[in-house]
Each structure stands twice: as structure tokens, then as C-alpha cells.
Amino acid sequence: MRLSRYAAILAVVAGAVLATGSILAADGVIAKRQADMKAMGKEMGGIKDTLAAKGDLAKVQAHAEAIRKILAEVPALFPAGSDTGPTDALPAIWSDQAGFDSAVERADGLADALGTAAGTGEIAAATAAFAALGKNGCGGCHQSYRKPQG
Q1: C-alpha 83 chain-centroid distance
Q2: Positive or negative CA dihedral for 100, 102, 106, 107?
Q3: Cα(145)–Cα(150) distance, integer angstroms
Q4: Does the residue 150 lie in any domain?
Q5: What's the domain range around 135?
Q6: Do the beta carbons of residue 114 and residue 57 sit within 8 Å?
Q7: How far is CA 7 from the centre of its chain?
Q8: Suppose 114 and one of 28, 64, 102, 148 were both cysteines; which one would form an S-S bond, judging by CB atoms 3.0 to 4.6 Å apart?
Q9: Over the stretch 58-88, which tens digit does the pLDDT of each residue have?
């Protein structure tokens, strides 16, 4: 009888340790995705500044490629159990995984199109592609899968 009491206590403690580990892991992935989203925002800012200055479109291509690298990681940054804690992610990410994955793929395609447009050397084409990425890529995902800001 005494052994089963200790076994029960040990099971409760082990469960608490595992739960704490899961919480810490979720907080880690949340911090990583927030850092990645902030980095993507900085890349978008760099594109905006370059286009406004009618600058070197090779820089726009580099920013677009950096965005694509971040987007490649995005689906893995939303594992099950990372929906609680300090996050602006909406539950729809996990309940509509196919839709979320499609939104990420759309953003990736638009970032690729931006890089291609910048490669033409035409500011107008790059500017239009940038607007599409902002509205239908980033904005399209945020509208459905991120809590409203402000």
C-alpha cells in the first residue's frame, strides 16, 4: 500500500514535469515564430524603403528571398499545443490547417513573384508585386489567422 502511494505521488510529479516541459516548449516555439514574423516585417520594410527610393532592385530580390526562407519554416512554427500563451495566433490555424498551409503557400508564391518582378528592373512591376504580397500574402494570412491588432 505504501508503494502505491509513492507511485501515485511520483506519477503526479512526473506529469507536472512533463506538462511544464510542454509549456516551455510551446513558449519557445511561440517566441521563435514571433521573432520570425518580426524579421519578415523588417524585410517588408526594407522592400518598401527601397521601392520608395527607386533604389537597387537587387535589394528587393534579396529581401523577397529572405521572406521565402522564413515562410518555408512557418508551418512548423505552429505545432499542436502552441495555441496558448503569449500568442496572437487564432485557433483557426489549428482547426483549418489546410487553409493555413494554403495561405502560407500563397504568400510564398507572391514573394517569389516579387523577386521575379524585381529581376525585370522595372520599379512599377516590383511595386505592384510588393502590393500584392502585402495585401494577399501577409494581409491575407493575418486576416484569417491572426488576432486583430491595435
Answers
A1: 13
A2: positive
A3: 16
A4: no
A5: 2-145
A6: no
A7: 42
A8: 64
A9: 999 999 999 999 999 999 999 999 998 889 9
Look up residue 93 and give its three cell numbers: 490555424
- Locate 137 and state its grid cell: 500574402
User: How far is residue 38's CA from residue 27's CA, in Å, rounded to a whole number?
Assistant: 16
The DSSP bridge partners found for residue 89 are: 146
Q: Helix and strand tally (H, E) in the chain?
A: 6, 0
21 pLDDT more than 70: no
Q: Is residue 44 part of a domain?
A: yes
pLDDT tens, position by position, 103-140:
999 999 999 999 999 999 999 999 999 999 999 999 99
Report the CATH number at residue 136.
Answer: 1.20.120.10
**Total domains present in the chain:** 1
